[in-house]
Design a protein that fits this description.
The chain is 70% helix and 3% strand. By secondary structure, it is mostly helical. β1 and β2 form a beta hairpin. α5 packs antiparallel against α11 and α8 runs parallel beside α11.
């Protein structure tokens, strides 16, 4: 669960951050990581005690999380963490595919040298992070999870960074978070990092070399082969969905 130090770290990263933004980031982080369980009531007294913030910023944060479908509001019953299900996961993945196919195609058509450099840098940062954590035996500690997820998201963000549509990029970001909510707990249960090679990840990735999948998408994008790039991205996301389904989705209220 989030603590005062974690919230303070977020605030230090962005000095101008409001209390509502602090609450939003902390609660969002705990939902995505599975520390706040699907269906769990979001009672204000509990939230005030847990996050050390008052009613007003918490209310604003919950409204924002509701708009992102991470929290559900019920008449006269307050807020709950959004439920999770296999059907919901696949709906999220297929919608993400639809959005990111268009975004990646547009980025390939418009991206310049800086876009290419950004993808390569993000890929190498993710690859080096994964190798370092495996070598150190530091997976799946909480700091390791947070670090590699930042790298993983940065790589997928870099792929579509040259897409000119802000709405498309923001929808992609929201859908990424929704899929992370399913992927991260599954990988933790399997003891596998998001960029693990299949040989070292055991049943978690079922023989997949996810680093090679990322590299193939990167290579196709940089070669301006949009058809191959979107085909590889689609397969990558669907294979992740199948992996999550095999590992199981934790549901149920506390």
């Amino acid at each position: 669960m989030a603590d005062t130090a974690a919230i303070r770290a977020d605030a230090d990263a962005e000095p101008a951050q409001t209390l509502a933004e602090q609450a939003y980031r902390a609660i969002r982080r705990d939902i995505v990581a599975g520390r706040l369980a699907p269906g769990q009531p979001m009672r204000f007294e509990y939230l005030k005690e847990t996050y050390g913030l008052s009613f007003s910023p918490l209310r604003e944060a919950l409204a924002r999380l509701q708009s992102e479908r991470l929290v559900t509001a019920y008449a006269l019953r307050g807020f709950r963490v959004a439920e999770m299900s296999v059907d919901e996961m696949w709906d999220t993945i297929e919608t993400r595919i639809m959005i990111e196919r268009e975004a990646l195609t547009a980025a390939i058509a418009r991206g310049g040298d800086d876009w290419e450099i950004g993808i390569v840098q993000a890929f190498h940062a993710l690859s080096h992070c994964s190798k370092r954590l495996r070598a150190a035996g530091d997976w799946p500690s909480e700091p390791a999870i947070e670090e590699i997820e930042r790298r993983h998201q940065a790589f997928h963000r870099a792929l579509i960074a040259a897409c000119p549509s802000r709405w498309t990029r923001e929808l992609s970001e929201m859908l990424y978070v929704q899929t992370e909510r399913y992927r991260r707990p599954a990988l933790m249960r399997a003891g596998a990092a998001p960029d693990d090679e299949g040989a070292s990840a055991g049943e978690g990735t079922a023989g997949r070399d996810i680093e090679a999948e990322h590299k193939a998408i990167m290579d196709a994008a940089i070669a301006r082969d949009a058809a191959t790039a979107v085909e590889l991205l689609t397969a990558h996301l669907r294979d992740t969905g199948r992996m999550i389904e095999r590992l199981g989705i934790e549901t149920g209220r506390r």
